[in-house]
Amino acid sequence: MIHIIDTEHPWDVYSINSGHTEVISCLEWDQSGSRLLSADGDGQIKCWSMSDHLVNSWESALCSSLDGDPIVALTWLHNGVKLALHVEMSGSTNFGEKFSRVKFSPSLTLFGGKPMEGWLAVTVSGLVTVSLLKPGGALLTASESLCRLRGRVALADIAFTGGGNIVVAATDGSSSSPVQFYKVVVSVVSEKCRIDTELLPSLFLRCTTDPLRREKYPAVTHLKFLTRENSEQVLLCASNQSGSIVECWSLRKEGLPVNNIFQHRSPVVGEKQPTILKWRILTTTNDLERVSSVALPKLPISISNTDLKVASDTKFCPGLGLALAFHDGSIQILHRLSLHTMGVYYGSSSSSQRPGDESAIKRQRTGGPALHFKALQFSWTSLALAGVDNQGKLHMLRVSPSMGQVLEMNTTLRHLLFLLEYCMVTGYDWWDVLLHVQPTMVHNLVEKLHEEYMRQNQALQQVLATRIVAVKASLCKLSTATAARACDFHAKLLLMAISSTLKSLLRPHVLNTPDKSPGDRLTEICAKNTDTDIDKVMINLKTEEFVLDGPPLQSLQQLIQWVGDFVLYLLANLSIKSCLFITKGSMVRPGFGFMRDGASLGMLREMLVMIRIWGLLKPGCLPTFTATSDNQDSMQLLFRLLTKLWLCSRDDGPPQDPDETLIDECCLLPSQLLVPSMDWLPVNDGVIVKLQGKHPLRLQFGKASSLGGGGATAPLDVFTRTPGSQKMDNLRCVHMGVCPTEESKACTRCGCVTMLRSPNKTNAMKQWEQRWIKNCLCGGLWRRIPPAPLT
After folding, report:
1. Contacts of the segment 682-685: beta carbons below 8 A, 24+ positions apart
2. Nearest-angstrom CA–CA distance, 209 and 728
3. pLDDT of residue 303
4. Which is it for strands 275-284 and 155-160: parallel, antiparallel or unpaired?
5. Per-residue pLDDT, 565
6. Where is the Mediator complex subunit Med16 N-terminal domain (predicted)?
7. Closest to 474 (Cα-Cα) out of 441, 511, 430, 533
8. Which of 227, 244, 364, 633 is least enclosed, having the fewest CB within 10 Å?
9. CA distance 367 to 355
10. C-alpha–C-alpha distance, residues 102 and 163, integer Å
């Protein structure tokens, strides 16, 4: 069986009957986390992919086999994307200087330089096998011996070079035997996969050449390249029944000494001294407890001298430490270059004892086999360690960014901000960074993240526009004081998506016009025209660009209705929120964040203009309002009040408080129009909001109810859901009923719920739904949720 869980809902386990006939020896994720490789002791390799893009629904579509030849190492081919994180530039205002793209070639390329997908495996008999995914979906497979004299391979690891080559390290498991290295080159010739191998310099462990330790550690138990993209540094662990020793080696280019006979001849112009590649030991540990597992950092931190010095001065440790788990249940974090100890974890059983209760610790250590980790893995930013122990329990450990060293609050915030920016730029999940954010840090982190974002160039801001809003929403959920702002940020994501969708429907009247797109012209005209009369703003637009067929407009009515309801809700609640402009109370209601957001208010204003024009063509697409007067022009009224509010918070001038007249008019709105109750996203049921304390949280697989209590403050009434309340499809903006019968899916990050199957048949609405088929508005992954139980 293969068990897959989402860290935000660790009790929700999806178990796959893998179909492997032997013990699974390797599991390997791809870079996106949407595909998984599994290999077993019979030579079977299976490729699993998400079914319907759901994290709790998987299927195997591809497989390859080397019958009877167990797999000892497995990896995906490199796609050529490599970043370097520069700690030295952490204070820079330019993301491009903090996170630079490193020149790196893919393992194999298709026509035009596109990287070819596939995987590579090493077997116990010394074979290397490659499977390539052709664009049509077919699998191209080839196998080749690592060298002419094949021998047993007990341990192996795979790394990549910048030139597109692959390096395999292999050992037969004996510490007295050499650790062999091979260069593997994969190519496609005449529609057939070809593998070329070449022997590289090998090494003998230092402990076998030491007279005092020659036979002390007979077996090599762990062999790892320090990083996937660095084939020139390798970590080796040799062990006996009770202890281990770890060595770190580096491949260096050295000058080859020339015999004296040739040194006296006249040198040729441009001639260089011949060189040779040679493995040199960097450092070694003292005798250790027996190592049970090794975890290497995934954060691509630059290890130049200046970066290492700045990291040392600022106590920035992520990416610099590797983790060793021992058979006594402890974990040590060692520096990846010097192997000196950076931090120690003594295991959940011993850490749960009260200080001074030494007898309890002694009893636990001496009675029976100790609880220890069989597998250990760092998260993408190295701020969390996931491990499975010998009793089948899953553990998640926080790893301090400073390894427990006391820092000033500003330095801590700077470290977390740096890693949040890295996640924002790369697209990696920032869940592990949130583990270290305390509620008191949330406001400062959100403000500083926004400041750094605003310093980037316009093009990069456009690329990261939705991702930064999603990061802010995740941060705000960690504190009860900012929970309402999280709702605002989710509403902003939906607002941005609806705006871009509606603008994409506009078409220029003349196809070959070099002018701006209709959407850009609409934005420009609405920004310049401060008139509060919606019809006067319409006069300046080329209305022929807004002419659309009836069916698309009618099918998008539910999104248009949400825009109308949202504007009405914001304006009707302005009187409640206006006092907060002065008092700046910490607990605010949802919607407050939009009162000072000139860009979002301008976006709403543009959409009201579009909707007004479309209403003239197709009245059925207009949002419906329940008015107290038959002759009430609701759109005109909302546009007038929205424009006045927008003028108070425009980006090109100092922010102003809404005047008394505007607040009075907004106070009258509930007597003119029925104000809808907005269905804000419910508070996420995930585990991250429960992990802010120092005490460990114990959960049980399959039981979400075992989750501990939440924050100290009761949530706002707007978040509460009564058992008989209507369930909302947060993407389609439609009600699903009290007990929906349709299968649904929910976002693992924000909790947004939507129906799994589309009830719509029109192309316009299907295009909207296709935008969110893989990811939620916030970029989170989908998981299938069971239907609501009938009451």
Report:
1. 682/719, 682/721, 682/751, 683/477, 683/483, 683/715, 683/719, 683/751, 684/8, 684/477, 684/749, 684/750, 684/751, 685/9, 685/751
2. 69
3. 87
4. unpaired
5. 92
6. 66-345
7. 430
8. 633
9. 20
10. 12
Count other C-beta atoms under 10 Å from residue 663's C-beta: 16
Could you tell me if 209 and 176 are in contact, meaning their C-beta atoms sit under 8 angstroms apart? no
- Cα torsion 43, 47, 51, 57: sign: positive
Burial environment of residue 6 by CB neighbours within 10 A (0 to 12, 13 to 18, 19 or more): buried
Q: Which helix (H) or strand (E) holds 225?
A: strand 219-227
Find the Cα–Cα–Cα–Cα dihedral 481, 482, 488, 489, rounded to 10°: -170
Contact 594, 581 (CB under 8 A): no
What lies within 8 Å, CB to CB, of 555 at 6+ separation is 760, 762, 764, 765
Q: Which amino acid is at 551?
A: P
Picking from 185, 184, 194, the residue whose alpha carbon sits closest to that of residue 140 is 194
Burial of 143 by CB count in 10 Å (0-12 exposed, 13-18 middle, 19+ buried)? middle
Distance CA 694, CA 662 (A): 48
- pLDDT tens digits for range 14-62: 998 988 989 999 999 998 888 999 999 999 999 999 999 999 899 998 9
Q: Which residue has the tokens 């497989």?
A: 63
Integer CA distances (angstroms), 401 to 87, 382, 413, 514, 690, in order: 13, 8, 10, 51, 20
pTM for this entry: 0.89
202: helix, strand or coil: strand
Cα distances (Å, whole numbers) of residue 533 to 79, 107, 540, 665: 54, 61, 12, 16
- Which of helix, strand or coil describes residue 350? helix
CB 662 within 8 A of CB 554: no
Q: Quick one: which of 8, 10, 17 has its CA closest to 48?
A: 17
pLDDT for 366 equals: 45
Q: Tell me the two tokens of residue 491.
A: 């509403």
| Cα distances (Å, whole numbers) of residue 778 to 174, 427, 607, 775 | 50, 11, 22, 8
Q: What's the rounded Cα separation, in Å, for the pair 623 and 741?
A: 27
Dist. CA 99–CA 568, nearest whole Å:
43
Tell me, what amino acid is at 361?
Answer: I
Rounded mean pLDDT, 703-715? 52
Tokens of 494: 């939906």
Residue with tokens 């893989």: 774
For residues 330 and 291, the answer to whether their CB atoms sit within 8 Å is: no
Identify the CA nearest to 42 among candidates 72, 64, 66.
66
Q: List Cβ neighbours of 321 (8 Å cut-off, separation of 6 or more).
A: 297, 333, 334, 335, 336, 342, 343, 382, 399, 403
Q: What is the pLDDT of residues 514-552, one digit of tens each?
A: 567 888 888 888 888 888 888 888 887 877 777 776 677
Q: Are 407 and 388 in contact (CB under 8 A)?
A: no
Provide the sign of the torsion angle of the four alpha carbons 642, 643, 647, 651, taken in this order. positive
Percent of the chain exceeding pLDDT 70 equals 89
730 token code pair: 């947060």
233-246 residue pLDDT tens: 999 999 999 999 99
Q: Look up tokens 């424009």; give the residue.
A: 643
Q: What values do phi and psi take at 461, rounded to 5?
A: -60, -40
Q: Of 238, 122, 118, give the one whose Cα is nearest residue 186.
A: 118
Q: What is the pLDDT of residues 165-180, one digit of tens each?
A: 999 999 999 999 999 9
365: nearest Cα among 344, 347, 386: 347
SS3 495: helix
Q: Kindly list the distances between the CA atom of residue 494 and the CA atoms of 173, 188, 585, in Å, as whole numbers in the listed order.
A: 56, 45, 26
- pLDDT for position 585: 40
What residues does 385 pair with on adjacent strands? Answer: 378, 397
